Amino acid sequence: MRYFYILLLLIPFLTNASEKNFKEGDEFQANKFEAIAVYLYKADASRVNTARDFSFSLNDFLNHATVDTRDIFKIRKGDTFTLTKSFRNGDIFEVNLKSQRAKREKYFVLSEDLKNSSLELIVKES
After folding, report:
1. What is residue 106's predicted lDDT score, i.e. its pLDDT?
2. Cys-Cys crosslink for 93: which of 4, 61, 83, 108, Cβ 3.0 to 4.6 Å?
3. Which residue range(s) make up the domain with 111?
4. Which residues contact 93 (CB under 8 A, 6 or more apart)?
5. What is the predicted pLDDT for the residue at 20?
């Protein structure tokens, strides 16, 4: 009977454990006002990703992964972007941003930020 209860408790975790996988060509649109940070340089995105992977202490994180705020763009409600290239086995993506506020078109985003955000995947009708 004990195993039945354990199995009953684990079923919701097993059914909701689907991993979000992103691929090149996916197009997203921000629907809420929460901001998602995209980086101007791939090196900035890879440093932040490395610091998150190794779970540095706060001081080490600030020393290793500090990014100049002029090199970060925040995606807001209504902005759309397309994933164009994948780096580091899908941990970092190059994106083409379609926004009037952006000073460039190409930025870099972390896949972890895409997973934890409320972006809507735009499905292309063919």
Report:
1. 93
2. 83
3. 22-122
4. 22, 24, 83, 84, 85, 86, 87, 108, 109, 111, 114
5. 63
Q: Give domain status of residue 15, yes or no.
A: no
* CATH number where 114 lies: 2.30.30
Contacts of 16 (CB under 8 A, 6+ apart): none
- Whole-structure pTM value: 0.75
pLDDT tens column, 69-98: 888 888 888 888 999 999 988 899 999 988
Residue 78 lies in a domain: yes
Question: Could you write out the DSSP letters of every residue in the chain?
Answer: -HHHHHHHHHHHHHHT-PPP---TT-EEEE-SS--EEEESSHHHHHHHHHHHHHT--HHHHHHHH---GGGEEEE-TT-EEEEEEEETTTTEEEEEEE-SS-S-SEEEEEHHHHHTS-EEEEPPP-
Q: How far is CA 89 from the centre of its chain?
A: 14
Domain count across the chain:
1
Is residue 14 a part of any domain in this protein?
A: no
